[in-house]
């Protein structure tokens, strides 16, 4: 097919409403991705935003949410018009994804009671510890139920007014459809989900009710939580108000089918075709996390591991690190400024490419350097706050290659500690699929990640598309299920989305594996330095 014919085919799919739209609200970007009937991306748009530290709380305002949605959608529409000369008015399906966890409580009138508390906040220690002990199930600091229970423990005045609470994806979905629902994967990061029922765990709901009965009589958490839906379910339709929120120009028509809103972990699994047992995926962005689909439950509880689900409701072990690639971005910015100061303006992708390729020439163990990417606290290593650090011994070798290899190792360090706990449980992994912007420079982060996790790492052509593409695929799956033309999610992905996908697989290199093991031993010992920095600075 010629490029002209392909463009005409895509144009027809857009004008006839057969394209599918996905929107994901990430930590630093809100991205919109349009896919054709063959699931290939055909247009994209994005808007930048950043969290704020307000009164000690990491947050985003709802005005920023609305403005970012409109900005990303407007950029997508402009891209469609530039490429195909048309403006979309409707879609076959639409999906919303966002950062998991956090706390958005609303009163009966739909007013937000306290500023959005994101996954990045680590103020829920007492609540998370008590709930984990009560349930016999790891409840991380960032989970929504930990935030709610901490608010109850602290006797916050807003608690009696709560009529519902949800995640960021759940909030946006309700703004677009009026439906208080959540995909099972995102819901499993609010409150534990029973994989047998694909719904909130009944035993734990009862335990929570008894726990809070004395402090908050009458509080029924099951009445506050969103209704849980599996992938493929009809999660409502775009209302006139929702269409106006997304597209204030009035061009977008109401009535579009929406799939269940999902978290970025779930869309990452879809974007990498990692929803079947013995597969896993790693998503690298502002945070970094690994998801491994389990063949059976773990034998014991580990604070390093969350138990969540796939968008279809299957049990997943999750290693979630609060700190990911932000420090890499900061250093790339410094080197970009240096290039400009020398009179050589360079695009961000060119700067990243040069720095990442230099890392391949570094010593396998980083040459004696240590890097901590801790901009925020890191529960896996027991730190409530973070201080980015570069540490080296006097006999270390400070070169650009060693510096950049260490920076990339540092982005994977906490993840590797968590993955070793999973390995100790005897969990088998055939292949880890990776996605995120750090993998756009071919063969660098992917190779070093394979050394860090001790498993083959596959990167596909959609690695840079990430979760916005993943939720667009889930929207297409919901449309197919609604039309009676789809079976299970794993079969749909394998047979319709990834059947002809080209994958680049990096096997662990023996020298890299040995070098990273040496680095990680130093990294674990050096956490004492990181801890001291948080106390001193």
Automatic annotation (TrEMBL):
SUPFAM superfamilies tied to this protein: Actin-like ATPase domain
Carbohydrate kinase FGGY C-terminal domain sequence ranges: 281-478
InterPro entries linked to this entry: ATPase_NBD, FGGY_C, FGGY_Carb_Kinase, FGGY_N
The entry's keywords: Carbohydrate metabolism, Kinase, Transferase, Xylose metabolism
Residue ranges of domain Carbohydrate kinase FGGY N-terminal in the record: 20-245
A GO molecular function held by the record: kinase activity
Family of this protein: Belongs to the FGGY kinase family.
Name of the protein in its database record: Sugar (Pentulose or hexulose) kinase
